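[job 4417] fold queue: 2 targets
>>> target A
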Amino acid sequence: MKHPALISSALVIASNLLVMADENKSPELPPLPTGQQGRMVWNDEFDGKELDPAKWNIQGDQVRKGGMWLKKCSLLDGQGNLELLATKEADGTYGTGAVNTKGKFEHKHGLWVARMRMPKQPGFWSAFWLMGNAVGKVGNEGMDGTEIDVIEYPKRDGELNMAVHWDGYGKDHQVRGTRHFDKSFTEGFHTYAVHWNEKEYVFYYDGKEVWRTREGMISRVPQYIILSNEVGSWAGDIKEAKLPDQCLIDYVRVYDLEGAGPPVAEKSKPSTNDPLSAEEFRARDGLPNLFAKLKAGGPVRIAYLGGSITAAEGWRVKTTTWFKAQYPKAEIIEINAAISGTGSDYGACRVASDVLEKKPDLVFMEHRVNGGGGFEAKSVEGIVRQIRKANPQTDICLIYTINEGMLKDLQAGKPPRFGSIMETIANTYGIPSIDLGVEIARREKAKTLIFKAKGWQNGNLVFSEDGTHPIEAGHAIYRDTVVRSMFQMMPDDQAKAHPLPQPLEPQCWENATTAPIQKATLSAGWKPIDPATDRIYGGNSGRTHQMLRGGVKCDQAGETITVKWSGTTLGLSDIPQGDGMELEVTLDQQPPITLKRLQTEKKQTYSRFFYLPEQAPGEHTAVIKIKSLPQGTSYYAGQLLIVGKVMP
C-alpha cells in the first residue's frame, strides 16, 4: 500500500528528473528543464476502501455511447487502485465506470500524470482526459477549453491515442492527434502524462516524450480530470469480450512546474541572420514598442499588410484573437490592409493611405508569395522607410508564407530569392522575421502533413487545396508559428525609437503613393463609374473597390489618359476584359509601346494593375491611349500608382 506521507509536496530534482517515492512501482516521470522543479498541487493515491467524494464525482447511471456508465463500475479495489469495470448486465446492457473532478478540482497548466494498467478485452476503451466547461463553445478555438486526451486505449494491438479537440462536437469540431505503438502497453502498469503550458501540450509514456502539439491554440482556462471506460466499435466487438474486465489506476498526480518557466519545443541555435539560409524566426531588434504598449494596456493597433493569404479569415484573425486573449487589459484594434493578388510593389503605393493613416503600433508585412512586381528590393525597403518616417516607434514584423514552388528550397534550408532580398533589408533595419513556411516544409518532409490535397486524407492533416492558400488547419499552423515567435520577443518590452539608416536602394519606393484617376487629364469619352450599380465593377466588388476606389470607364478606342509626374515609375489599376484589350503608351515622346490587358479568370472579371517602364528620376509625361477593345466591353481605369508625385 502506498503512503501519502512519502509523497513530497516539493519534488526533488536530480539529473533534471522528477524523483518520486515508491520508485519500485512507479516508472520514471518526464524530464524537466534545468532549474525547474515540480510542486504537487493535487493527487489521489486511491488508498482506502471508498472513492473520496471530496475529490471525485462518480458518473452514472446514464447511457454513454454503446453502453452505460454505471456507478457500481467505479470503485476502489482495496489494493491502492481505482478500478473501472466493464461488465455485461443481466438485461444484456454493457456497463462501464467513469469518474471526474468537475467542480472539485479544476486547474490550469502543469504536469498531469496517471499510472494505469490497461484492460485486455475488446469492445471498450480506457481513457485519461482533461475537459473544460466551454469545450462545446465555437469561435475561440481551444483557448476557452480543449478536450485533452492524455491517453486513449481503443485497441489491443499496442496502439495508444493522444489527441486534442476543440470548437464543439458538431460541424465546427476540430481534432488533431497521434498514435503511438508499443506492445508493452498491454502488460502491467505504465505512466501517462501531459505537460500543459502556455505554449503547447507535451505528451509522455513512461517518462518519454511521444508527441507535442500547439494545434488549436492552447487552453487558457482551468480544466478537470476524467477517467473512464467507454463501449464502442472503435475498440472492437464487445460481444467477443470475456467480462468483467477492468482498467486499474494506481494514482493521479498534478504538479505545477516552477522556476525556469515552461519548456520550449526545440531550443534553437543562435541565429546567424544569413539571408541565404532559412530559419523559422529571427528576432533582430524585436517588437519592444508593441510589447510595452500591450503590457501597459489601452489601445494597441496591429496592421496586416499583404495579399490573399492574409486577406482570408485565417492566420490574421487567429493571431489577433490570440493577442486579445493574451493581453485582456489592452484594446486590440486590427487593421486589415490585405488585398488579394497584391505584393510589396502595390503595398508600397498604398501603405500610407491604408495603414499609416490609422497609426499602427505594429505592421505585419506578408509579401513573399505575391512578390514585388519586379521592384522587390525597392518596394520592400520603401514600405519600411515610409513606416519609420511616419513614426520611428512603430514596430514591423516580416511574415513569410509559402506556396508549392518554395517547398523543396525550404526543405533544403534555402529561402526563395525574394525571401533573401527581404532578409537583407531586415538585417539592415533590425526587423524581426517569421518564416511560416519552415514548419510546413518540415512537416511535409516528415510525412505528418500533406501539402496539397482536397480535405483530410486518411486522417492526415492537409495544408492547402490549391498549393498556396491554407485551409483552416494550415492557417492554425501559421498562427501557432507566429505565437511562439511572439513569446520569444516578449521579454524585450522597453520602448524605443527605431533608427533610419541610409537606404540600400538609392531609388527605393519611400515616396510611392496612389492618386485618383481624376488627377490625370482625361479625354471627353470617359465617364465616372457608379460602384453601386455597375455590373463589371461589382463582379468582385470587394477586391475591385480596394484597387480602383471608384474610377472612370470608356467604351471606345482612341480615348486617352495623360499623366504628368515627377519621379521614376507610374502605374494604373484597371479591369481587363476578354483577350483583345490593348493600350498604346507614349512616354516622353519616346516611340509608343503596346500593352495587352488580358482577363485572367474566365468566370469573372478581376481588377488588376500594371506599371510603365521605370524612368530616370525627373519630370515625365505619359499618354495612355485605348488602342482596341473587345466587342461589348469597356475599359475601366482606377487609381494612379506613382513613385514620386503627380504634377498639375
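>>> target B
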Amino acid sequence: MKESSAANIGEGSNEKHVNLRKREKQSQLLISRQKLEMATTCSIPMIDLHDFPNQSSKLMAACEEWGCFRLLNHHDILPSTLMSEMNSVAKSLFDLPVEIKRRNLDVVIGSGYTAGTEKSPLYEAMGMYDIPVRYDVETFCSQLDATPHQREIITKYVGAVHELLMSIAEKLAEGFGVKSENIGFQNWMFQFRMNKYHFTPQTVGLTGVETHTDSGFIYIVQIDEGVCGLEVMDKSGHFIPVDPHPGTIIVNLGDIAKVWSNGRFCNVKHRVQCKEPTIRLSIASGLLGPREAIEPLAELVNIDHPCVYVPTTYEDYRKFRFSKDLQAGEALVLQQTSSFVN
C-alpha cells in the first residue's frame, strides 16, 4: 500500500508539472496575442492575408476609417528573407557615390534620384516609375552598376511586391462586389522607390518628410525594423505613430483610391519624424492608377451617392498636384464635380 501510494504521488506530481508547463505555454501565447492586439488597438488596423474572405469587412472598414493598415501573413508572396535581402541591397545602393546615383533619371518629376529638398533636407530616394513600360529593372540596375546578386534580389522583390499589390487590389474590388478582372489592375502603372533618412542627434524632433498623401492607388511600405518615425493622421487630426512590427508591412491608400471609391476610402495623411539619431530606410512600392482616365466605380454611383470626382488620368492629376504644390490631398477638392464644389 505504501509503495502504491508513493507511486501515485509521483504520477500526480508529474501530471502537475505537465499541466504547469501547458499553462505557462498558454500564458505565453496569450501574452503574445495581447501584445499583437495592443499594437493594433493603439495604432492602425491589422489585416490577416490568410483569413479571407472573413477579413473582407475588416479590410473595407480599415480603408474607410484609416486609409492604411498593417498586413500580416504576406510571406507566401513576399517572404521575409527576400525583404531582408532587399533592405541590404538598398543600403548598399545608397552608399554609392552621388554621381552614380544621379544616373537614376526622372521619367516624371520626382521619380528618379532625389537628394533632398528645402522642405525635406534629410531625405534621399531613388527608384523606378511605370515598370516595365517606361522604366525596367535591367535599366535601373545597369545605371547603378548593380552586381548580379543585387539584380537578382531587385528583380525578385519587384515581382513579389507587384503580385502582392494585385492581391490587395483584387480584395478591395471584391469588397465592393466588383470582379477585379473587369478593372484590369494588371495594366495599371506600378512604381518602386527606396527612401533613406539621414537622421543625426541635431535632427531629433524634426520632420524627415512633411505631411502628405500619396498620389496613387495603394502602396506597400517596408520599413526598417527597430527604427521608428512613420506617423499617420487619424480622423480627429491627431498623428498616430506606426512603429515597426515584426512580420508585418504597411499598406497605404492614396488619392486615386479615394477617387476610385467615390470618396468612401480615406487617402491617409502621413509624415516621417526623426525620433532617434540613426539612418532610416523604407521601401515603397505602389500601384498608381490606370493609363486612361480614372473615375469612381460605376457600382458606387447612384441617386443617393452621386459622382464626387471628375474623370482624370493619374499622370494629369499627379502633374496638377505638383503644379499647385498641393501634396496633402487638397488637390482632390479641385477635382470634385460641380455638385460638390461650394
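[job 4417] complete. Note on B: Residues 1-11, 29-41 have pLDDT under 50 and may be disordered.
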